[in-house]
Amino acid sequence: MNRALIVVIVLALVAAGYLIWRNSAPETDFVKEAEIRIIAENFGQKLKAVPLLADKETVARVMDENYKEFVAPDLLNRWKENPSGAPGRLTSSPWPERIEVGTVTKINDNKYEVSGDIIEVANADTGTKVVARLPVILTIERVDGKWLITKMR
Question: Which domain of life is it from (predicted)?
């Protein structure tokens, strides 16, 4: 056999072995914390899309469209029943632009706490300007095999 072909076959086997090992390796705390951080940040990107002062039907529909993949059903249902206690957009300006994650703290293997700030921005002469940083704490838990926000304060 050609030596180059043997090298290619060995490299392909090593790569395949690595991929199999990587996909079957247990989730590490580092991987979990990165996933938790991404969930909090992606959820923060959706806050501006939820108009809390719209009629209750619209708010519920828009919450489902924007929050469902990030928020546990129990919490989402509470927010839909009482939008005044939910996160979202209250006025045209300022509006919640994002969540900046500060710390991710492991409570146990299936529960993390995320501390950060909701960043509110407003239009300015030079574009958008940060006008407020509102502290937020999210509890993110594994619910039915998926990481979801179960509490926000």
Answer: Bacteria
> Which tokens is 97 given?
């632009």
Domain boundaries, the chain: 27-152
Helix 73-81 to helix 56-67 angle (10° resolution) is 160
Q: Tell me if residue 131 falls in helix, strand or coil.
A: strand
Joined together, the tokens standing for residue 127 give 């574009």
pLDDT digits (tens, 9 = 90+) for 91-143: 999 999 999 999 999 999 999 999 999 999 999 888 889 999 999 999 999 99
Domain at 27-152, CATH from 3.30.70, 3.40.50, 3.30.310, 3.10.450: 3.10.450
The pLDDT value recorded for residue 86 is: 97
Q: Given this model, what pLDDT does residue 2 score?
A: 76
Q: Hey, which residues does 140 pair with through a beta bridge?
A: 112, 149
| Residues 99, 116 contacting (CB under 8 angstroms) | yes
* pTM score, whole prediction: 0.82
Please return the burial class of 55, using the count of CB atoms within 10 Å of its CB with bins 0-12, 13-18 and 19+. Answer: exposed
CA distance 123 to 100: 19
